[in-house]
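pinning this so it doesn't scroll away 📌
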Amino acid sequence: MPASPARSALWITLFADQARPGQTLREQLCGALRAAIARGDVRQGERLPSTRTLAADLALSRVTAEAAYAQLEAEGYLERQVGRGTSVRAGAFAAAGAVGEDAGLRPAADLSRRGQALLEGGACTDPRVVRAFDAGLPDLRAFPLELWRQLTGRCLRRQGAALMGYGDPQGHAPLRTAIAHYLAQSRGVRCDASQVVVVTSSQQALVLLANLLLDPGDSVALEDPGYLGARTAFAAAGARLVAAPVDAGGMRIPDVPARLAYVTPSHQYPSGVTLDLPRRLALLEQARRSGGWIVEDDYDSEFQYDARPMPALQGLDRHGRTIYLGTFSKVLFPSLRLAYLVVPPELVRPVVLARTVQDGHCAQLAQAVTADFIAQGHFAAHIRQMRTLYRSRRALLLARLGQAGCGWLQPVAAAGGLQLAGWLPEGSEAALTRQAEALGLAVPSLSRLYLGPVRRDGWLLGYAGLQNQEIEAAVARLACIRP
């Protein structure tokens, strides 16, 4: 349906207002559409012009209009349905108020230095709409939802009133017991339930540890490239960040011991390599001698495909310098909002007290259902099923990339995980990313994960949350890119 003259004038005016030096046309168009939603110029549920009409009104290519609509659909502003066109999504006004044109992270006089550092570190959020190749997402369509619903009903019938009150800030006791038992059996972690602290997310755990263990100016060794969420948490605490380059053997241990070292030894993020045994022992010895701490993030160790995973670093520690971190977001589902720490005995009380200052405790019902899910064997069965499924999807992605003629992309066939890294020709990442986004693909950047001066161009390609036909369609779009 053609747009009215008044509506066409609105888009033309907004698009002109969004012109910014250095911005692509797609970015300017996205800004114009966000601004229209934020100001209420378009209503919730209102249909937008087709990409053909919008492109004609603004003298743009249809590819640019399509890429802008796809981006805003992924951000939660728009809904697109075959036969019904594109409309403003319910709740988009609240989102626009948070992410609109005035929500930049420019310095603010009323923020603390720590607050500004926290904002500048960037957000660590998962997309609300999954696109190929969004990284780090499990397949929620394969989750046993009916079983979860049954367990939830049983928990409510059995302990409904008890689960509605305030909970133990250390975590629901049956869940802590289930976690300790699982980790001892599957990961070789040396602990009991008294050392487990249940938290809302791994990011909450990192912020909590940064505030407890670091003074401004203390050094933190970080894998390079590495996880941005850890960098944000430690930088906001005023730490001095030390880049520890990663090679085929994992993180290279710094010559000078740091107050804290953050590592992903079982499946390094983002390269996928495993920290070898000599370096594990060297890191533990360095922490013992210096009195430093090691934070071991075992974020997706359950998904190893080619060999039995190496036991956790924490299991080798005989001097209590390692803090183990795990999450249920990758193995169950992100909105569960449950993660856990295994801390040395002397840290249990400080961690629990600090946790009470943050948010008190996790939701009791979610903890109780998760405890039953683990104790009754459903957790182990689900992991086995997902491991088989994700292994097949990794194989399909690698096979299709090899057949598609994408010689400019060099995938790294990691032994496990939910995504794989792919290296790009030097200096090409920005241009190739623009082409990929114009095709509706999400290709998280690898170069931005580097802390030190040496950087390498590349993408993270998530495959776990994509079904086979979605992987094949996404690779076909990749094959359209011209380096």
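📌 and the second one:
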Amino acid sequence: MTPEITDILASFKSLKLDAMEKVKLMDRYDTKFVLPVNHVPALLEIMRDKYNVLEINGLRISSYSTVYLDTHDYMFFNQHITGRNGRVKIRYRNYISTGVTFLEIKKKTKKNKTVKWRTENILSGNKFDEYAVKFITKHLPLNTEELKPVLVNSFKRITLVSDDPPERVTIDMDLAFSMPDGKEKKLPLIAVAELKSEGLGSRSPFSMLAKELALYPTGFSKYCIGNAIIYDLPRKNILKPKLLLINRIENEYNGSIGA
């Protein structure tokens, strides 16, 4: 994390975690943008007068750690890369700034909205406790015994909030992926901005600001990209355009440093 980003964030108006209830947005539209991390300061500069930054325990950049679960044949991964309606993610996310871990289910509806359910819960080894089993089966017709941890993801996040219209923009950096007990891959030169809003992203003030920096919506699932760069999975070539985008950003970034 560069000092420039930290300095710009210090100039934002802040809000506390309890104020986030107004923009909880558990039923929403998600729009993602991929950019080089050295473009984040310029993005923050044009957002400063329209958004407040979430501050937790004195921190304006928060750390997250996520364990994604899937079946032995990667059913969720395949649902996502083929764009299937009703596709699902199940994960345990540790919000390190608050010390709380949630079991979370995200589902994409036929109208391309994201619905999210979550409950405070901790994964013990590879086993769900009784409460977790009830929570998952309440929302999904699944046999939880078929699920296992397949991918670990960590990142740092800036959360920016607007009340009018109610929306959140998260900027994720320092992305890292690993097998639950093995190979690791880091993407330190990539940032992923995500607009979370009640309406279509094209109508959002953030989308207008993004265009000023020639940023346009790009589908980017951390879960899918992580699996594609960690595992040699069938059909991962569907993600080739996204992987090429990552390579291009990394090559351009490294080229600018060496120039």
